Amino acid sequence: MTASGPVTPSPKAAGATGKVYPTAEAALADLLHDELRLMSGGFGLCGIPEACIDEIARRAPRELTVISNNCGNQGQGLAVLLQRKLVRAVICSYVGGNPDLAEQYLAGTVRVELSPQGTFAERIRAGGAGLGGFFTPTGAGTIVAEGKETRVIDGQQQVFETPLRAELAIVRAQVADGFGNARFHRTARNFSPLMATAATVTVLEVDDLVEVGALDPDDVHLPGLFVDRIVHVPRHRDVIEHRTTRTRSPA
Amino acid sequence: MSWSREEMLRRAAAEIRPGTIVNLGIGMPTEVANEIVSSANVMLQSENGLLGMGPFPYDDEVDPLLVNAGKQTVTVVPGASTFDSAMSFAMIRGGHVDLAILGGLEVAVNGDLANWTVPGKLITGMGGAMDLAAGARRLLVMQSHASKDGKPKLVAKLTLPLTALACVDRVITELGVFDPAGERFQCVERAPGVTEERVRALTGAPVDF
After folding, report:
1. Which residues of B are catalytic?
2. Which residues does residue B82 pair with via DSSP β-bridges, in sequence order?
3. Residue A14 has pLDDT above 90, yes or no
4. Angle formed by the axes of helices B85-93 and A117-129, nearest 10°
5. Is the confidence at residue A24, as pLDDT, over 50?
6. Which positions in chain A touch B125 (Cβ < 8 Å)?
Protein backbone atom coordinates (compact mmCIF):
# COMPACT_ATOMS: atom_id res chain seq x y z
CA MET A 1 0.00 0.00 0.00
CA THR A 2 1.46 3.34 -1.01
CA ALA A 3 0.19 6.53 0.55
CA SER A 4 -0.75 9.17 -2.04
CA GLY A 5 -1.56 12.17 0.13
CA PRO A 6 -0.49 13.49 3.50
CA VAL A 7 0.16 10.64 5.87
CA THR A 8 -0.88 10.56 9.48
CA PRO A 9 2.28 9.79 11.44
CA SER A 10 2.30 6.28 12.80
CA PRO A 11 1.99 6.25 16.57
CA LYS A 12 5.23 4.26 16.48
CA ALA A 13 7.02 7.20 14.85
CA ALA A 14 5.76 9.76 17.31
CA GLY A 15 9.22 10.28 18.75
CA ALA A 16 10.74 9.72 22.11
CA THR A 17 7.95 10.98 24.29
CA GLY A 18 4.53 9.50 24.79
CA LYS A 19 5.56 5.85 24.78
CA VAL A 20 6.48 5.52 28.43
CA TYR A 21 3.63 4.42 30.71
CA PRO A 22 3.87 4.48 34.51
CA THR A 23 2.66 0.91 35.05
CA ALA A 24 1.80 -2.26 33.17
CA GLU A 25 -1.79 -1.58 34.20
CA ALA A 26 -1.73 1.74 32.38
CA ALA A 27 0.14 0.38 29.37
CA LEU A 28 -2.31 -2.46 28.87
CA ALA A 29 -5.47 -0.64 29.97
CA ASP A 30 -7.16 -0.37 26.56
CA LEU A 31 -5.49 -3.39 24.95
CA LEU A 32 -6.98 -6.39 26.76
CA HIS A 33 -10.21 -8.02 25.68
CA ASP A 34 -11.74 -11.47 25.33
CA GLU A 35 -10.40 -13.50 22.36
CA LEU A 36 -7.18 -11.46 22.31
CA ARG A 37 -4.39 -12.92 20.18
CA LEU A 38 -1.29 -12.48 22.34
CA MET A 39 2.44 -13.03 21.78
CA SER A 40 4.77 -13.25 24.73
CA GLY A 41 8.56 -13.40 24.64
CA GLY A 42 10.57 -15.76 26.80
CA PHE A 43 12.10 -19.22 26.72
CA GLY A 44 10.45 -21.16 29.51
CA LEU A 45 10.63 -18.65 32.36
CA CYS A 46 13.79 -17.00 31.00
CA GLY A 47 13.20 -13.40 29.94
CA ILE A 48 9.45 -13.27 30.38
CA PRO A 49 7.55 -9.95 30.75
CA GLU A 50 6.43 -10.63 34.30
CA ALA A 51 4.61 -7.38 35.04
CA CYS A 52 2.58 -7.60 31.82
CA ILE A 53 1.66 -11.23 32.48
CA ASP A 54 0.66 -10.36 36.05
CA GLU A 55 -1.57 -7.57 34.77
CA ILE A 56 -3.23 -9.81 32.17
CA ALA A 57 -3.89 -12.39 34.90
CA ARG A 58 -5.42 -9.66 37.07
CA ARG A 59 -7.65 -8.28 34.30
CA ALA A 60 -8.48 -11.83 33.24
CA PRO A 61 -9.64 -11.46 29.63
CA ARG A 62 -10.98 -14.83 28.44
CA GLU A 63 -10.61 -17.06 25.38
CA LEU A 64 -7.04 -15.94 24.74
CA THR A 65 -4.88 -17.30 21.95
CA VAL A 66 -1.32 -17.36 23.28
CA ILE A 67 1.69 -17.51 20.96
CA SER A 68 4.78 -18.29 23.02
CA ASN A 69 7.47 -20.96 22.86
CA ASN A 70 6.39 -22.66 26.10
CA CYS A 71 3.32 -20.91 27.52
CA GLY A 72 4.90 -20.79 30.94
CA ASN A 73 6.26 -23.60 33.00
CA GLN A 74 5.82 -25.21 36.38
CA GLY A 75 2.76 -23.12 37.19
CA GLN A 76 4.55 -19.83 36.57
CA GLY A 77 4.72 -17.23 33.82
CA LEU A 78 1.96 -17.68 31.25
CA ALA A 79 0.93 -20.88 33.02
CA VAL A 80 -0.91 -18.59 35.44
CA LEU A 81 -3.26 -17.66 32.58
CA LEU A 82 -3.86 -21.36 32.00
CA GLN A 83 -4.57 -21.96 35.68
CA ARG A 84 -7.21 -19.22 35.57
CA LYS A 85 -8.77 -20.89 32.51
CA LEU A 86 -8.28 -17.81 30.37
CA VAL A 87 -6.65 -19.57 27.41
CA ARG A 88 -8.46 -21.09 24.43
CA ALA A 89 -5.52 -21.91 22.18
CA VAL A 90 -1.74 -22.06 22.36
CA ILE A 91 0.76 -21.96 19.51
CA CYS A 92 4.12 -23.17 20.79
CA SER A 93 6.97 -25.63 20.25
CA TYR A 94 7.17 -27.28 23.64
CA VAL A 95 4.63 -28.08 26.35
CA GLY A 96 6.81 -30.26 28.60
CA GLY A 97 7.08 -29.26 32.25
CA ASN A 98 3.75 -27.46 32.04
CA PRO A 99 1.13 -29.60 33.81
CA ASP A 100 -1.52 -26.88 33.51
CA LEU A 101 -1.28 -26.95 29.73
CA ALA A 102 -1.05 -30.75 29.54
CA GLU A 103 -4.16 -31.16 31.68
CA GLN A 104 -6.31 -28.73 29.68
CA TYR A 105 -4.96 -30.01 26.38
CA LEU A 106 -5.94 -33.58 27.29
CA ALA A 107 -9.32 -32.41 28.55
CA GLY A 108 -9.84 -30.72 25.19
CA THR A 109 -10.43 -27.28 26.69
CA VAL A 110 -7.24 -25.80 25.21
CA ARG A 111 -6.25 -26.28 21.59
CA VAL A 112 -2.50 -26.70 21.04
CA GLU A 113 -0.76 -26.07 17.73
CA LEU A 114 2.80 -27.39 17.88
CA SER A 115 5.33 -25.75 15.62
CA PRO A 116 8.99 -26.83 15.53
CA GLN A 117 11.00 -24.20 17.39
CA GLY A 118 12.94 -22.88 14.39
CA THR A 119 9.81 -22.84 12.28
CA PHE A 120 7.96 -21.09 15.11
CA ALA A 121 10.66 -18.37 15.27
CA GLU A 122 10.73 -17.95 11.51
CA ARG A 123 6.93 -17.75 11.26
CA ILE A 124 7.03 -14.84 13.69
CA ARG A 125 9.91 -13.24 11.80
CA ALA A 126 7.92 -13.63 8.57
CA GLY A 127 4.87 -12.11 10.25
CA GLY A 128 6.85 -9.07 11.27
CA ALA A 129 8.78 -8.78 8.02
CA GLY A 130 5.76 -8.68 5.74
CA LEU A 131 6.39 -12.07 4.18
CA GLY A 132 3.67 -14.45 3.08
CA GLY A 133 5.43 -17.52 4.45
CA PHE A 134 8.37 -19.72 3.57
CA PHE A 135 9.45 -23.25 2.69
CA THR A 136 11.55 -25.16 5.22
CA PRO A 137 12.94 -28.71 5.31
CA THR A 138 12.01 -28.88 9.00
CA GLY A 139 9.04 -31.17 9.52
CA ALA A 140 9.07 -32.70 6.03
CA GLY A 141 7.43 -36.13 6.16
CA THR A 142 6.25 -35.62 9.74
CA ILE A 143 2.85 -34.78 11.24
CA VAL A 144 3.92 -31.13 11.08
CA ALA A 145 3.63 -31.31 7.29
CA GLU A 146 0.13 -32.78 7.28
CA GLY A 147 -2.25 -30.64 5.23
CA LYS A 148 0.52 -28.27 4.15
CA GLU A 149 1.91 -27.57 0.69
CA THR A 150 5.22 -29.31 0.05
CA ARG A 151 7.79 -28.78 -2.67
CA VAL A 152 11.13 -30.31 -3.57
CA ILE A 153 13.72 -27.53 -3.51
CA ASP A 154 17.37 -28.30 -4.29
CA GLY A 155 16.53 -31.98 -4.05
CA GLN A 156 15.11 -31.63 -0.56
CA GLN A 157 11.48 -31.98 0.47
CA GLN A 158 10.29 -28.74 2.04
CA VAL A 159 7.12 -27.65 3.82
CA PHE A 160 5.29 -24.35 3.40
CA GLU A 161 4.78 -22.51 6.67
CA THR A 162 2.60 -19.46 7.16
CA PRO A 163 3.47 -16.27 9.06
CA LEU A 164 2.34 -15.63 12.63
CA ARG A 165 1.06 -12.29 13.86
CA ALA A 166 -0.73 -11.09 16.96
CA GLU A 167 -2.79 -8.15 18.17
CA LEU A 168 -0.53 -7.62 21.15
CA ALA A 169 3.07 -8.57 21.88
CA ILE A 170 4.49 -8.32 25.39
CA VAL A 171 8.26 -8.51 25.63
CA ARG A 172 10.93 -7.72 28.17
CA ALA A 173 14.38 -6.21 27.64
CA GLN A 174 17.29 -5.34 29.89
CA VAL A 175 17.64 -1.71 28.85
CA ALA A 176 15.69 0.61 26.59
CA ASP A 177 15.38 4.30 25.85
CA GLY A 178 12.18 6.31 25.57
CA PHE A 179 11.90 5.63 21.83
CA GLY A 180 11.90 1.91 22.52
CA ASN A 181 15.39 1.09 21.30
CA ALA A 182 16.18 -1.99 23.34
CA ARG A 183 19.03 -4.27 24.28
CA PHE A 184 18.48 -7.71 25.77
CA HIS A 185 20.58 -9.66 28.24
CA ARG A 186 22.15 -13.02 27.37
CA THR A 187 19.61 -15.74 26.53
CA ALA A 188 16.67 -13.56 27.59
CA ARG A 189 16.55 -12.28 24.00
CA ASN A 190 15.15 -15.47 22.40
CA PHE A 191 11.83 -14.71 20.62
CA SER A 192 11.30 -11.21 22.03
CA PRO A 193 12.73 -8.98 19.28
CA LEU A 194 10.93 -11.11 16.68
CA MET A 195 7.58 -10.86 18.44
CA ALA A 196 7.97 -7.11 18.84
CA THR A 197 7.91 -6.85 15.04
CA ALA A 198 4.89 -9.08 14.53
CA ALA A 199 2.10 -7.49 16.57
CA THR A 200 -0.27 -4.60 16.00
CA VAL A 201 0.79 -3.18 19.37
CA THR A 202 4.01 -4.03 21.22
CA VAL A 203 4.44 -3.35 24.91
CA LEU A 204 8.03 -3.46 26.15
CA GLU A 205 8.80 -4.07 29.79
CA VAL A 206 12.31 -2.96 30.67
CA ASP A 207 14.61 -3.28 33.70
CA ASP A 208 16.54 -0.07 32.97
CA LEU A 209 14.96 2.91 31.24
CA VAL A 210 17.57 5.33 29.89
CA GLU A 211 17.61 8.69 28.11
CA VAL A 212 17.25 8.70 24.34
CA GLY A 213 20.82 8.76 23.04
CA ALA A 214 22.25 6.80 25.95
CA LEU A 215 22.26 3.57 23.96
CA ASP A 216 24.90 3.35 21.28
CA PRO A 217 23.09 2.72 17.96
CA ASP A 218 25.34 -0.29 17.37
CA ASP A 219 24.16 -1.84 20.63
CA VAL A 220 20.45 -1.72 19.80
CA HIS A 221 18.99 -5.23 19.35
CA LEU A 222 15.45 -4.00 18.73
CA PRO A 223 14.97 -0.66 16.94
CA GLY A 224 12.44 1.57 18.70
CA LEU A 225 9.98 1.81 15.81
CA PHE A 226 8.73 -1.67 16.74
CA VAL A 227 7.83 -0.60 20.26
CA ASP A 228 4.59 1.23 20.99
CA ARG A 229 4.53 1.37 24.77
CA ILE A 230 7.22 1.10 27.42
CA VAL A 231 6.95 0.23 31.10
CA HIS A 232 9.87 0.58 33.46
CA VAL A 233 9.92 -2.49 35.74
CA PRO A 234 13.19 -2.32 37.71
CA ARG A 235 12.74 -5.57 39.60
CA HIS A 236 11.87 -8.98 38.20
CA ARG A 237 11.51 -12.28 40.01
CA ASP A 238 13.56 -14.11 37.36
CA VAL A 239 12.67 -17.58 38.54
CA ILE A 240 15.31 -20.15 37.61
CA GLU A 241 13.85 -23.44 36.34
CA HIS A 242 16.95 -25.56 36.89
CA ARG A 243 19.65 -24.01 39.01
CA THR A 244 22.71 -26.02 37.99
CA THR A 245 26.10 -25.11 39.47
CA ARG A 246 29.57 -26.54 39.91
CA THR A 247 31.80 -26.31 42.95
CA ARG A 248 35.25 -24.78 43.05
CA SER A 249 37.97 -27.28 43.61
CA PRO A 250 39.61 -26.59 46.99
CA ALA A 251 42.62 -24.27 46.67
CA MET B 1 29.09 -56.72 28.62
CA SER B 2 28.23 -53.35 27.14
CA TRP B 3 29.21 -49.70 27.51
CA SER B 4 28.26 -47.80 30.63
CA ARG B 5 26.62 -44.41 30.35
CA GLU B 6 30.02 -42.77 30.96
CA GLU B 7 31.64 -44.86 28.24
CA MET B 8 28.89 -43.89 25.80
CA LEU B 9 29.46 -40.24 26.66
CA ARG B 10 33.20 -40.58 26.06
CA ARG B 11 32.61 -42.38 22.78
CA ALA B 12 30.24 -39.61 21.69
CA ALA B 13 32.81 -36.95 22.63
CA ALA B 14 35.34 -38.75 20.41
CA GLU B 15 33.07 -37.89 17.45
CA ILE B 16 33.63 -34.17 18.02
CA ARG B 17 36.39 -32.70 15.88
CA PRO B 18 38.51 -29.81 17.19
CA GLY B 19 37.37 -26.35 16.18
CA THR B 20 33.82 -27.34 15.29
CA ILE B 21 30.38 -25.95 16.20
CA VAL B 22 28.31 -28.49 18.13
CA ASN B 23 24.76 -28.54 19.47
CA LEU B 24 24.06 -30.96 22.31
CA GLY B 25 20.43 -32.02 22.79
CA ILE B 26 18.57 -32.18 26.07
CA GLY B 27 19.27 -35.15 28.37
CA MET B 28 22.20 -37.50 27.91
CA PRO B 29 23.76 -35.53 25.01
CA THR B 30 24.07 -32.47 27.28
CA GLU B 31 26.45 -34.50 29.45
CA VAL B 32 28.82 -35.03 26.51
CA ALA B 33 30.03 -31.48 27.23
CA ASN B 34 31.84 -32.77 30.31
CA GLU B 35 33.93 -35.09 28.13
CA ILE B 36 35.14 -32.46 25.66
CA VAL B 37 38.66 -31.26 26.39
CA SER B 38 38.96 -27.47 26.43
CA SER B 39 41.98 -27.57 24.09
CA ALA B 40 39.67 -28.84 21.32
CA ASN B 41 38.29 -25.29 20.89
CA VAL B 42 34.79 -26.60 20.33
CA MET B 43 32.04 -23.97 20.38
CA LEU B 44 28.79 -25.26 21.82
CA GLN B 45 25.61 -23.84 20.32
CA SER B 46 22.44 -23.69 22.38
CA GLU B 47 19.32 -23.16 20.30
CA ASN B 48 17.77 -20.67 22.73
CA GLY B 49 20.32 -18.15 21.45
CA LEU B 50 23.89 -18.81 22.55
CA LEU B 51 27.08 -19.79 20.75
CA GLY B 52 29.99 -20.44 23.10
CA MET B 53 28.23 -22.08 26.01
CA GLY B 54 30.44 -22.75 29.03
CA PRO B 55 30.08 -25.07 32.01
CA PHE B 56 27.57 -24.68 34.83
CA PRO B 57 28.30 -21.51 36.85
CA TYR B 58 29.85 -21.36 40.29
CA ASP B 59 27.27 -20.57 42.92
CA ASP B 60 28.18 -16.86 43.00
CA GLU B 61 28.02 -16.38 39.22
CA VAL B 62 24.54 -17.75 38.50
CA ASP B 63 22.68 -15.53 36.01
CA PRO B 64 18.97 -16.42 35.75
CA LEU B 65 18.92 -14.96 32.24
CA LEU B 66 21.70 -17.22 31.00
CA VAL B 67 20.36 -20.73 30.45
CA ASN B 68 20.75 -23.59 27.98
CA ALA B 69 17.96 -25.20 25.96
CA GLY B 70 17.17 -27.42 28.95
CA LYS B 71 16.69 -24.24 31.02
CA GLN B 72 19.71 -25.05 33.19
CA THR B 73 21.91 -22.17 34.28
CA VAL B 74 25.15 -22.02 32.28
CA THR B 75 28.05 -19.66 31.55
CA VAL B 76 29.64 -18.19 28.44
CA VAL B 77 33.18 -18.82 27.20
CA PRO B 78 35.46 -16.13 25.73
CA GLY B 79 34.32 -15.50 22.16
CA ALA B 80 30.69 -16.34 22.91
CA SER B 81 27.78 -14.54 21.27
CA THR B 82 24.08 -14.27 22.03
CA PHE B 83 21.30 -13.78 19.50
CA ASP B 84 17.59 -14.17 18.87
CA SER B 85 15.84 -17.44 18.03
CA ALA B 86 15.53 -16.74 14.29
CA MET B 87 19.30 -16.23 14.06
CA SER B 88 19.85 -19.34 16.14
CA PHE B 89 17.80 -21.53 13.83
CA ALA B 90 19.32 -19.89 10.76
CA MET B 91 22.59 -21.31 12.08
CA ILE B 92 20.98 -24.72 12.54
CA ARG B 93 18.82 -24.94 9.41
CA GLY B 94 21.42 -23.24 7.27
CA GLY B 95 23.91 -26.01 7.89
CA HIS B 96 26.28 -23.85 9.94
CA VAL B 97 26.26 -26.22 12.93
CA ASP B 98 28.80 -28.96 12.21
CA LEU B 99 27.39 -31.60 14.50
CA ALA B 100 24.25 -32.13 16.55
CA ILE B 101 24.03 -34.88 19.15
CA LEU B 102 20.47 -35.83 20.03
CA GLY B 103 18.76 -38.49 22.06
CA GLY B 104 16.80 -41.05 20.06
CA LEU B 105 13.87 -43.44 20.44
CA GLU B 106 14.24 -45.21 17.08
CA VAL B 107 16.57 -44.98 14.10
CA ALA B 108 15.84 -46.68 10.79
CA VAL B 109 18.36 -48.13 8.30
CA ASN B 110 17.77 -45.20 5.94
CA GLY B 111 18.61 -42.68 8.70
CA ASP B 112 15.05 -41.72 9.61
CA LEU B 113 14.84 -40.58 13.24
CA ALA B 114 12.02 -40.81 15.78
CA ASN B 115 12.74 -38.99 19.02
CA TRP B 116 9.99 -36.54 19.85
CA THR B 117 6.88 -38.40 20.87
CA VAL B 118 5.38 -41.79 21.69
CA PRO B 119 1.71 -42.34 20.81
CA GLY B 120 -0.43 -42.73 23.90
CA LYS B 121 2.04 -40.88 26.09
CA LEU B 122 1.72 -37.25 27.03
CA ILE B 123 2.87 -35.01 24.18
CA THR B 124 5.67 -32.67 25.21
CA GLY B 125 6.28 -31.06 21.83
CA MET B 126 9.24 -31.27 19.51
CA GLY B 127 10.97 -28.09 20.64
CA GLY B 128 14.01 -27.69 18.39
CA ALA B 129 14.50 -31.39 17.65
CA MET B 130 12.99 -31.37 14.15
CA ASP B 131 15.02 -28.33 13.11
CA LEU B 132 18.25 -29.78 14.50
CA ALA B 133 17.66 -33.16 12.92
CA ALA B 134 16.82 -31.67 9.53
CA GLY B 135 19.45 -28.94 9.59
CA ALA B 136 22.66 -30.02 11.29
CA ARG B 137 25.46 -30.96 8.89
CA ARG B 138 26.10 -34.18 10.78
CA LEU B 139 23.74 -35.88 13.23
CA LEU B 140 24.81 -38.28 15.95
CA VAL B 141 22.12 -40.05 17.96
CA MET B 142 22.60 -41.54 21.42
CA GLN B 143 20.06 -44.09 22.54
CA SER B 144 19.61 -47.53 24.02
CA HIS B 145 19.94 -50.37 21.51
CA ALA B 146 16.71 -52.09 22.48
CA SER B 147 13.91 -51.75 24.99
CA LYS B 148 14.09 -53.57 28.32
CA ASP B 149 12.05 -56.43 26.89
CA GLY B 150 14.37 -56.74 23.87
CA LYS B 151 12.39 -54.80 21.26
CA PRO B 152 14.92 -53.32 18.80
CA LYS B 153 15.29 -49.55 18.51
CA LEU B 154 17.54 -49.79 15.46
CA VAL B 155 14.95 -50.84 12.92
CA ALA B 156 14.18 -51.45 9.26
CA LYS B 157 11.29 -48.99 9.37
CA LEU B 158 10.21 -46.60 12.14
CA THR B 159 7.22 -47.56 14.25
CA LEU B 160 7.18 -44.23 16.12
CA PRO B 161 6.31 -40.77 14.71
CA LEU B 162 9.04 -39.31 12.51
CA THR B 163 11.25 -36.41 13.65
CA ALA B 164 13.14 -35.99 10.36
CA LEU B 165 13.76 -37.99 7.18
CA ALA B 166 17.13 -39.65 6.45
CA CYS B 167 19.00 -37.39 8.86
CA VAL B 168 21.01 -39.71 11.13
CA ASP B 169 24.69 -40.23 10.28
CA ARG B 170 25.67 -42.34 13.27
CA VAL B 171 24.11 -43.98 16.33
CA ILE B 172 25.86 -44.76 19.60
CA THR B 173 24.20 -47.36 21.80
CA GLU B 174 25.45 -49.36 24.76
CA LEU B 175 26.39 -52.11 22.28
CA GLY B 176 28.49 -50.02 19.91
CA VAL B 177 28.56 -47.54 17.04
CA PHE B 178 26.30 -48.00 14.03
CA ASP B 179 25.82 -46.10 10.78
CA PRO B 180 22.53 -46.26 8.86
CA ALA B 181 23.68 -47.48 5.43
CA GLY B 182 20.53 -47.55 3.31
CA GLU B 183 19.07 -51.01 3.77
CA ARG B 184 21.39 -52.20 6.55
CA PHE B 185 23.28 -50.87 9.52
CA GLN B 186 27.03 -50.80 9.34
CA CYS B 187 28.59 -51.65 12.69
CA VAL B 188 31.56 -49.30 13.08
CA GLU B 189 32.58 -50.48 16.51
CA ARG B 190 31.39 -52.96 19.13
CA ALA B 191 31.64 -52.39 22.88
CA PRO B 192 34.10 -54.81 24.49
CA GLY B 193 32.58 -58.26 25.00
CA VAL B 194 29.59 -57.63 22.74
CA THR B 195 29.24 -60.40 20.17
CA GLU B 196 27.95 -60.07 16.62
CA GLU B 197 25.19 -62.54 17.56
CA ARG B 198 23.98 -60.31 20.39
CA VAL B 199 23.96 -57.25 18.13
CA ARG B 200 22.02 -59.17 15.47
CA ALA B 201 19.52 -60.46 18.02
CA LEU B 202 18.80 -56.95 19.33
CA THR B 203 18.74 -55.12 15.98
CA GLY B 204 15.58 -54.92 13.85
CA ALA B 205 17.45 -54.83 10.54
CA PRO B 206 20.47 -56.53 8.92
CA VAL B 207 23.85 -55.46 10.32
CA ASP B 208 27.19 -55.58 8.53
CA PHE B 209 30.34 -55.95 10.60
Report:
1. 47
2. B50
3. no
4. 120
5. yes
6. 92-96, 114
A148 close to B (CB below 8 A)? no
Q: Are B100 and B42 in contact (CB under 8 A)?
A: no
Question: pLDDT tens across A175-211, in order?
Answer: 999 999 999 999 999 999 999 999 999 999 999 999 9
Mean pLDDT for the stretch of residues A101-109: 90
Look over chain A and give the mean of its residue pLDDT values, rounded to a whole number: 93
Separation CA A207–CA A117 (nearest Å): 27
pTM of the model: 0.95
For residues B11 and A155, give the distance between their C-alpha atoms in angstroms, rounded to a whole number. Answer: 33
Set out the domains of chain B in order of their start, with CATH numbers.
5-208 (3.40.1080.10)
- CA–CA separation, A138 and B132 (whole Å): 8
**The sheet that has B106-108: what strands, in order across it?**
B113-114, B106-108, B154-155
Neighbours of A54 (CB within 10 A): 15
Which amino acid is present at A130?
G
Residue A186 CA to residue A55 CA, distance in Å, equals: 25
Superfamily covering domain A16-232: Glutaconate Coenzyme A-transferase (3.40.1080.10)
pLDDT: which is higher, B58 or A72: B58
The residue extents of the domains of chain A are: 16-232
Interface confidence, given as ipTM, is: 0.96
In SS3 terms, chain A reads as CCCCCCCCCCHHHCCCCCCEECCHHHHHCCCCCCCCEEEECCECCECCCHHHHHHHHHHCCCCEEEECCCCCECCECCHHHHHCCCEEEEEECCCCCCHHHHHHHHCCCCEEEECCHHHHHHHHHHHHHCCCCEEECCCCCCHHHCCCCEEEECCEEEEEECCCCEEEEEEEEEEEECCCCEECCHHHCCCHHHHHHCEEEEEEEEEEEECCCCCCHHHCCECHHHCCEEEECCCCCCCCCECCCECCCCC
Query: Among residues 61-90 of chain A, which lie with CB inside 8 Å of chain B?
Result: 69, 73
Residue A116: predicted pLDDT: 98
Task: Please name the helix (run of DSSP H) or strand (run of DSSP E) that holds residue B200, with its range, or none.
Answer: helix B196-202
Judging contacts by C-beta atoms under 8 Å, the chain B residues touching residue A141 are 162, 164-165
Q: Residue B152: phi, psi to the nearest 5?
A: -60, 145
